[in-house]
Amino acid sequence: MQGQNDWGVTYTPTDLICALEGSIVEIHCAFNYPSRLNDADTAVEEAFWFTRFSDNEPVDLRADSEYSGRVQYHCGENDCTLRITDLRESDSAEYKFRFITNQPGRKYTGEPGVTLSVTGNISPCTWSRLTCHSSCPLPDHPSYIWYESGKNIQKDAHSFPAYFYGENSYACAVKGHEDFPSPSSRVNVCLYPADAPKVSVLMNPSGDVMKDSSVNLTCSIDANPAAKYTWYKEKQLLLSGEPQLVFTSVQSSDSGEYYCTAENELGKTTSEHVSLKVKYGPQTSTLSVSPSGEIVEGSSVTLTCSSDANPAANYTWYKENLKLLQGPEGVYHFSSISSEDRGNYYCKSENKHGQINSASLFLDVQCE
């Protein structure tokens, strides 16, 4: 154990880290140094991680082109964590931490460093086996604990084969020594669409969709290899290959039930149906009369007002601009029409998105 006034670097983990290509690794260290030397306070002026030398000087990983954009330091007063993303097999090396102080000639490198071994991913879409190894002597017939993304899974053997779904991290520990688990390793494996979470369709914007507005339907699912998408409207094929179905100016004819399928070489799955209901004010208002021939006093006559609207229109009836009746029924009925009913009639179709009046219709009632 190093004292408060000693020079030292302690790494966590202490010796070997095994990681998979494409994953992320963190190496942590704590360091200490004398607080005062030669009647002067000691301060750290520079601290960095390195794996190689150039002109007999260690090269800061942040300045190493091989690690460009993939290295971060998170350092405190007496500790520093190295984080490397998108690991490559070429990152396999011994990593060391070095700090330089304001004291003349006083710099320190933690020896030995931590060895990182990067291997390729488990081949996607194959039956794979995870095995737990220990560099320490173990008791006879030890039991093991396995963790999937930090959660204990019911496995007690030192290895097990399975298909793995999703990008999860796996770690193991010897039972009774759970405080000393292995480093986590990511397993990037296949997702079978038929076994994956259901494919989902997102409509943007949600809620009421107004005529002439822009609407996007997006089909998504976790799948590896990536899925190919196909869009349908009420079993009619619309589009193949794209995850989005885009309406730049949606029309009433676009209303209907939509769904998508996601497929790769391992399987195919179908989404739930999404209902696209295009809302719009009345487009037309048409007035008709039945019977269409000569209208005789005492006969039964029906005026019908029809309109294309969503939601359905309410109707208001007028004679010579005098309001007669209002309601959801587009019918105005004379059970026994009289000469006093002669005149010009029209109707107004209206919903919350707009209104429109029909053309006038003249009823000429003939005497018997």
TrEMBL record:
Start and end residues of each Ig-like domain: 112-188, 197-275, 282-362
PROSITE patterns given in the database record: IG_LIKE
UniProt-listed InterPro entries: Ig-like_dom, Ig-like_dom_sf, Ig-like_fold, Ig_CD22, Ig_sub, Ig_sub2
The organism's place on the tree of life at top rank: Eukaryota
Task of the protein: Most highly expressed siglec (sialic acid-binding immunoglobulin-like lectin) on B-cells that plays a role in various aspects of B-cell biology including differentiation, antigen presentation, and trafficking to bone marrow. Binds to alpha 2,6-linked sialic acid residues of surface molecules such as CD22 itself, CD45 and IgM in a cis configuration. Can also bind to ligands on other cells as an adhesion molecule in a trans configuration.
Record note on quaternary structure: Predominantly monomer of isoform CD22-beta. Also found as heterodimer of isoform CD22-beta and a shorter isoform. Interacts with PTPN6/SHP-1, LYN, SYK, PIK3R1/PIK3R2 and PLCG1 upon phosphorylation. Interacts with GRB2, INPP5D and SHC1 upon phosphorylation. May form a complex with INPP5D/SHIP, GRB2 and SHC1.
PANTHER family, sorted: B-CELL RECEPTOR CD22-RELATED (PTHR46013:SF4), VASCULAR CELL ADHESION MOLECULE 1 (PTHR46013)
Protein name as it appears in the record: B-cell receptor CD22
Organism (species): Seriola dumerili
Organism lineage string: Eukaryota, Metazoa, Chordata, Craniata, Vertebrata
